[in-house]
């Protein structure tokens, strides 16, 4: 049976990305060696890193003065690396979900970290709108896409101080104005690559301003200086990321990724709103186009397990909602195609006919 992969992360990648990565794992570009057994300092590997950085800059239109890094540790390590390197006086955080909250908790270990607003009281079902960002903060941290709850900030916010963003689950899904950010980071395993690499886009100028000592490995300057080669970087995930970036470029860049995401979201949310059995879980204006969450409508709650089974039997994979929200979550990252979306919608329609 054909499988439709709606996993939240690690998640669906374009077929050709996986094929190219798998081929390189057997024979890297005709070298007779597997990518897995090659030195990261090999002459023929350096171009992989260089090209990945170049495509990051090209596709996201990253201005001069920023570095692109590939690190280990996941987005979760960035929760502490960011304040370690950037928090001197005060930092401001917008609490829009579990990941945002974790980032804030780490910042508190390093100094004053202010929660400017939170939607925790309503299971993070919306993005807070009216809040004041302290003008004396070193940075304002946001999580652009809340992977678990299915809310998203899809436009640049107005901030009196430079922003820092966790874009783990929506990077490369729309054009962004990088100049508004001192730092953007994310784990690759949602929209970019296989698990194992973390990307960081950092404005060089904002570093070196804190008075504390920073351990070498946690200092961004170490990795800028070392070209992400201070220690052994995750070579295969970087290669895989490069294949994804080439695929995005070939498809027409982030504008096209955005067009596709909006098209997918329109179809799926359209069905959630039309179908009497289901309803969405978050404020309409804040709906994520990456993680589309829905639950059984009032009066049909007892059908949840049945729909899960019904959908699974028709090839849907990974649509179970996060345990804190329940219901269903269809993660539709860049690699999700309309075939998958239509299969899910058909499934919802057929299930409705039975009830
Ligand atoms: C998945 C996710 C994380 C955690 O990423 P790791 O790479 O597992 O540390 C952090 N933030 C967001 C928004 C995520 O979706």
Task: Summarize this structure as a short list of keywords or feature phrases.
355 residues, alpha/beta, Aspartate Aminotransferase, domain 2, Aspartate Aminotransferase, domain 1, seven-stranded mixed β-sheet, 14 strands, 17% strand, binds pyridoxal-5'-phosphate
In words, what does this structure look like?
The chain has 9 helices and 14 strands. By secondary structure, the chain is of the alpha/beta class. It folds into 2 domains: 15-251, 3-Layer(aba) Sandwich (Aspartate Aminotransferase, domain 2); 253-354, Alpha-Beta Complex (Aspartate Aminotransferase, domain 1). The strands form 4 sheets. It has a 7-stranded mixed β-sheet, with helices on both faces. It has a 3-stranded antiparallel β-sheet with strand order 11-12-14, with helices on one face. A two-stranded parallel ribbon has the order 1-13. A hairpin with a 4-residue loop joins strand 6 (145-146) and strand 7 (151-152). Helix 6 (235-251) packs across helix 7. The longest helix has 22 residues, at 253-274. It starts with a strand and ends with a helix. The mean pLDDT is 97. Bound molecules: pyridoxal-5'-phosphate. Pyridoxal-5'-phosphate (PLP) is lined by residues 9, 74-76, 99, 143, 147, 166, 168-169, 187, 190.
């Amino acid at each position: 049976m054909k499988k439709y992969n709606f996993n939240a992360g690690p998640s669906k990648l374009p077929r050709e990305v996986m094929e190219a990565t798998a081929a390189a794992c057997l024979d890297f570009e005709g070298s007779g060696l597997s990518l897995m057994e090659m030195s990261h300092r090999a002459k023929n590997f350096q171009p992989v890193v260089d090209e990945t950085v170049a495509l990051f800059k090209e596709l996201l239109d990253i201005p001069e003065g920023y570095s692109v890094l590939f690190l280990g540790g996941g987005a979760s390590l960035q929760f502490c690396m960011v304040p370690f390197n950037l928090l001197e006086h005060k930092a401001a955080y917008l609490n829009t979900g579990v990941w945002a909250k974790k980032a804030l908790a780490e910042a508190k270990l390093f100094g004053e970290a202010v929660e400017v607003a939170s939607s925790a009281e309503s299971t993070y079902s919306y993005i807070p709108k009216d809040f004041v960002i302290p003008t004396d903060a070193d940075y304002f941290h946001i999580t652009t896409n809340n992977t678990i709850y299915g809310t998203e900030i899809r436009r640049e916010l107005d901030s009196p101080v430079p922003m820092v963003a966790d874009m783990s689950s929506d990077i490369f899904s729309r054009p962004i104005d990088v100049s508004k950010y001192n730092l953007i980071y994310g784990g690759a395993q949602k929209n970019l690559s296989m698990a194992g690499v973390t990307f960081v886009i950092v404005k060089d100028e904002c570093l070196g301003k804190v008075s504390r000592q920073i351990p070498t490995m946690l200092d961004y300057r170490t990795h800028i200086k070392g070209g992400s080669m201070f220690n052994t970087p995750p070579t295969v995930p970087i290669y895989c990321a490069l294949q994804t970036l080439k695929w995005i470029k070939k498809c027409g860049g982030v504008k096209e990724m955005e067009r596709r995401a909006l098209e997918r979201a329109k179809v799926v949310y359209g069905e959630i709103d039309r179908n009497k059995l289901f309803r969405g879980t978050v404020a309409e204006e804040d709906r994520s186009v990456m993680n589309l969450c829905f639950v059984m409508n009032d009066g049909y709650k007892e059908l949840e397990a049945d729909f899960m089974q019904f959908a699974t039997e028709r090839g849907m994979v990974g649509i179970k909602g996060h345990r804190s929200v329940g219901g269903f979550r269809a993660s539709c990252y860049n690699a999700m195609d309309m075939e998958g979306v239509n299969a899910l919608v058909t499934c919802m329609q057929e299930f409705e006919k039975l009830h």
